[in-house]
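Attaching the record inline, Q. Sequence:
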Amino acid sequence: MDSEKTLLQNKINELDTQIINLRYRMEQLESLVTITSLSLVDNNLNSQKVIIPGTSLHGAYIVIIEDMNESGGTKAIFALSRCSGSTGSVHRIVNSIGYKGEEILIVWNHDYPRLYWAKIPSDACGNLIQFKVQTIKTPI
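Structure, as predicted:
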């Protein structure tokens, strides 16, 4: 009977350790993901470029962007990377042009990666368009 209790207690201790390790790993993974929103003015094609939240001067990221105002608005997934002292590399993995013809892009030239309009919506009139931005940083 005592040996069964001891075995059971050992199993419980083992499971407790595994739970603690899983919680720690989840916290690490959560720190790699940033979910925020940002806005672009819908009639400002050339001058407005907004910094992508959750990024820095160099690193590697997956960025998922979707229009929060319109279900038929533009959406895209990008892969970004940049080494210190170089120009960033941005690859659009997939995108959808919004039903008003709008399209977004990311550029990463000198400092932080930035979101901007490739094509503004067909009915552009100076409204703020909200985007949900999910930034996933690759672990170092």
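The mean pLDDT is 88. Strands lie at 33-41, 50-51, 59-67, 75-82, 89-96, 103-107, 114-119, 128-137.

More tomorrow.
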